[in-house]
Amino acid sequence: MQDPKLTEAISQVKELAKRGALSELQADDLKDSDIKPATLGWTGGPLHLNSVRRALQRVKSGEVEMMVIRAPNGIPIAKGGIDYEVNPGSGTIWQLVSHPELKGLGTGTMLIKAMEKKMLKRGVPTAMMGVETWNERAKKLYERLGYKVVGTKQETWKELDKDGKEFDYVADEYQMSKDL
User: Fold this and answer.
1) 52 vs 149, residue with greater confidence
2) 3-state helix, strand, coil in the chain (%, to 5)
3) Strand ranges (E), 19-98
4) Cβ–Cβ < 8 Å for 104, 110
């Protein structure tokens, strides 16, 4: 069963979208208190939430920034990070996800634009990201936002199978770049 505050957040965002008022949503920094299964569990399983916690620890050093778009009730409905270390001289957007019930409403676009503003404030001239080759919908969105495919890459991370056993998930990705 979904957390009532998350259900309320989804309803609030859908109502704002109907009124053409998504600009009322706020981009904000991800906080430790956001990382709990009830409010951020939709972004991935326990291993993913642990990865988000580790990323949040890197914020203190300035290596990364973690951001969310919040519904009016304060619950995150989109999440992503900017890694300034993985591709020196650029900001690499990763862990980008919008709540599945809100896909196509513009929350991902809003988050990407907020991240690009953060990069520009730091004087970072280039944004990069990877998108899995099967995810044509996301690739088309990024292309509409000005990103271009500059290569391919294989990424690997830990996932849990249906029995709760860890395995290496292998993702074939397009590497995309945009001059800010």
Assistant:
1) 149
2) 40, 35, 25
3) 26-29, 64-70, 76-83, 90-98
4) no
CA atoms within 13 A on the CB side of 56: 16
Residue 102 CA to residue 119 CA, distance in Å, equals 25
55-73 tens-digit pLDDT: 999 999 999 999 999 999 9
DSSP 127-161: EEEEEETT-HHHHHHHHHTT-EEEEEEEEEEEEE-
- How far is Cα 130 from Cα 96, in angstroms, rounded to an integer? 10
- How many CB atoms sit inside 10 A of residue 25's CB? 23
Of the candidates 93, 53, 80, 68, the one whose C-alpha atom is nearest the C-alpha of residue 13 is 68
Q: Give the separation between CA 14 and CA 41, rounded to whole angstroms.
A: 20
- What does pTM read for this prediction? 0.91
Q: How far apart are CA 161 and CA 152, in angstroms?
A: 26
Q: Which two tokens stand for residue 132?
A: 């899995």
Give the model's confidence band at 158: pLDDT under 50 very low, under 70 low, under 90 confident, else very high.
confident
User: Smallest Cα–Cα separation from 180: which of 111, 123, 129, 138?
Assistant: 123
d(CA 15, CA 21): 8
Token pair in block for residue 158 = 């830990």
What is the model's pLDDT at position 1?
A: 66
